[in-house]
Amino acid sequence: MVDLAVLRFPPRFLFGTATSSYQVEGGLTDNDWYDWEGLPGRIRDGSRAGSACDWWGGRAEEDLRLSAELGHHAHRCSLEWSRLEPEPGRFDDAAFARYREIFTAARDAGLELFVTVNHFTLPRWAAARGSWLHRGLADRFAGLCGRVASELGDLVTAFATLNEPSVVAFIGYAGHLWPPGMKDPACAPVALSNMLRAHAGGYRAIKSVAPEAQVGIVLNAPYFDPVEAGIDRALAGMQDWAFTEVVLRALKGGYLWPPLSFVPARVPGLAGALDWIGLNYYGRFGVRFDPSAPEMFFGRHVQEPTVKTEWTDWGQPWPDGLTAQLHRFGKLGVPVYVTENGIYDNTDTQRPDFLRRHVRAVHRAWTEGVDVRGYFHWSLLDNFEWAEGYATHFGLVEVDFETGARKPRHSAEVYRQICADRAV
Ligand code: IFM
């Protein structure tokens, strides 16, 4: 039976939306994704990010005002490393100034800002040195974080160092759908370990400049669910360990566990480097043993229905999984935010219901005692969806990429009501 009771959130609970620099800014030509797009067959619909939603060119302010008009309380965005540090050690004052302009406009519109320092893209100079396989990149990243905190910290409610390090490690290093396209399972633990070092250094650097800053990290944590008991359970457990649990353990205790390190290895500065944690949650993967799927560690994803294209699978919409992961993240003992949750749905037929059911799942976690303080829907508007290009639409607001026109979808109205009432 469907439970239609109105569920109320506490008065300071934040409802917002999320975007990332490369996906919306446009005009970026000096990073690894720009080079990746230029290789044949890397983007499924053949598109390039190009001018994207033209935030850098001037439309950020208007879109953030629209976000506020749609009732949102906060926005989560990211910074573009290749703009801010075009050469190692040389920072670009004009780029910092433009972010100041955008952030000031967001604050003037009444939005709180959650800012991720790095959301996937690396400057070309960093890619040339081996991307996250290069241990020294962690120190460079810490330098960037310190500079960001001193230039922009006064406008930011909370910083996240990195977005979805496990996704980067698995898709770009174990896999080959994203840069650097290593296709070598041995590279994923190296990259992930270096990103955790970068988080530790970035956290410490921000705190040394701005001790009051709230600094966290954002993890993508799907719900890996065995189809049957026995081997499926073991495989789902392994996938979850390698993707999520090993990162949670590192954040909690400060140690890298296998497969990140042969023996537990301490990362200086990592233990306690967490004021809050972000959960990106899209769905459930049903894991079934399949000897012909070594690339999936022999655990194929077989859930039905699922939200997918030929290249990407976001899993089965499964709100109970969101509640479960919130409980799990809550055990870290810091406030939890749902920093992304959304659905690829070009016709906006599934999104309204998806939205309501997932917000209800967040409420359940809160009533069960999890210190969850906000929910950011992915995304404010249609944007460049990485290897999928512009074919998969996640926006509450539809974007016509020919004319640049914006049109709020029905789901934007549904969300407006949720934000206005702080209830669902
Ligand atoms: O668009 C991405 C985002 O950049 C990171 N999390 C998942 C989203 C949807 O695939």
Give the helices and strands, then pairings.
Blueprint: E1 14-18, H1 21-24, H2 32-37, H3 55-69, E2 74-78, H4 81-84, H5 93-108, E3 112-118, H6 124-128, H7 137-152, E4 158-163, H8 165-174, H9 187-209, E5 215-220, E6 223-226, H10 231-253, E7 255-256, E8 265-266, E9 276-280, E10 284-289, E11 299-301, E12 307-308, E13 313-315, H11 319-330, E14 336-340, H12 351-367, E15 372-378, E16 397-399, E17 406-408, H13 410-421
Parallel strand pairs: 1-2, 1-15, 2-3, 3-4, 4-5, 5-9, 6-10, 9-14, 14-15
Antiparallel strand pairs: 7-8, 10-11, 12-13, 16-17
The chain binds 5-hydroxymethyl-3,4-dihydroxypiperidine.
What this model shows, in words?
It is a single chain. Helices cover 38% and strands 17% of the residues. It is an alpha/beta fold and 424 residues long. The chain has one domain: TIM Barrel (Alpha-Beta Barrel). The strands form five sheets. It has an eight-stranded parallel β-barrel with strand order 1-2-3-4-5-9-14-15, surrounded by seven helices. The protein has a three-stranded mixed beta sheet with strand order 6-10-11. Strands 7-8 form a two-stranded antiparallel ribbon. α3 runs parallel beside α5, α7 packs parallel to α9 and α8 runs antiparallel to α9. The longest helix is centred in the middle third of the chain and has 23 residues. The model has no long low-confidence stretch (mean pLDDT 98). It binds 5-hydroxymethyl-3,4-dihydroxypiperidine. The site of 5-hydroxymethyl-3,4-dihydroxypiperidine (IFM) has 8 residues, from loops.
